[in-house]
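S.,

Sequence below, as promised.
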Amino acid sequence: MKKKEEMVLALAKEIEMRKGELLENHFDKLSVTKSKIETIYFGGGTPSILSVEEIQLLIDTVYKNFDVVENPEITLEANPDDLSDEQIIKLSNTQINRLSIGIQSFFEDDLKLMNRAHNAEEAKKCLETATQYFDNITIDLIYGIPNMSNERWLQNIETALSFCIPHISSYALTVEPKTALDKFIKKGLVNQPDDEVAQEHFHILVNRLQEEGFVHYELSNFGKPDYFSKNNSAYWLGKKYIGIGPSAHSYDGTNRSWNVANNTLYIKSIQENQLPSEKETLTTVDQYNEYIMTGLRTIWGVSLERIEKEFGPKYLEYLNLQSQKFIEDELLFVENGILKATQKGKFLSDGIASDLFLLNLE
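The prediction came back faster than expected:
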């Protein structure tokens, strides 16, 4: 049996093995509720290498083993070079109703610098076809690329807007070890990414997208009303989720677990009816820190009432004390009992959150 076929069967089997994970037993021990699946996301790596039939098999397996809401958001993550016209048309005839396309840039030299497999023409052609068959599309764009002027970055944004897509995710360029970009920088062929340039690009992006009616609902995410990512919003709002496949992470409200990364070990374990995962139980401090980190990145912010109710008055007292300097510097503000980041503070929200973190609180 081919490795790909083994993997698909293993994924389907893991879904079946985990069908009871969303059951909730109540205190009377007589009533059991089953949480409903609201989103299905094919992501991580290149899930678009799966055939339409294989994707449909996995969707069908989810429906057989879980309760699914009437109109779930079903997303496929793909790169432009994976999405031929024929593939897009085939996907449009499945239950997939959202595409996440890794465009990164509409400029050829940027794509070469980031060692992307697709070219600028493929990126545009992909969106031309995709927008004919899918209403709900998101793309990724990278800012802070060395030698990218503000004008060039704005051109990237304008090109994206010309396709009338309803959602954009945008991230600052990071240099991963042992990549082509890392080697170019070490050889002095390319400048190191500049934080000030990245911050300037970020504010250009925020202002331009807001002019077009996008809501900046999370640090790196912008959506038209009714087009926020339901899948990613679930993470930020602390909802439970199940991750299927190698390296996939899951969260049940108290515990976080993750599957083994090695494909061969993953398949072998599933074939032996063993879940290839490790688990950790989050402490109260862990849960507080995660809530601060995710909350400050989003428009939903951090509820001071929730901090007191779920974590206790000591946590609220600590948060109020630590956040005061950021409020004075106009990086944070409190509105109707919700602590939020200002536009100036959003770009720095991860760093601000780390200053509000707790190591321990007796």
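Residues 25-32 have pLDDT under 50 and may be disordered.

Coffee later?
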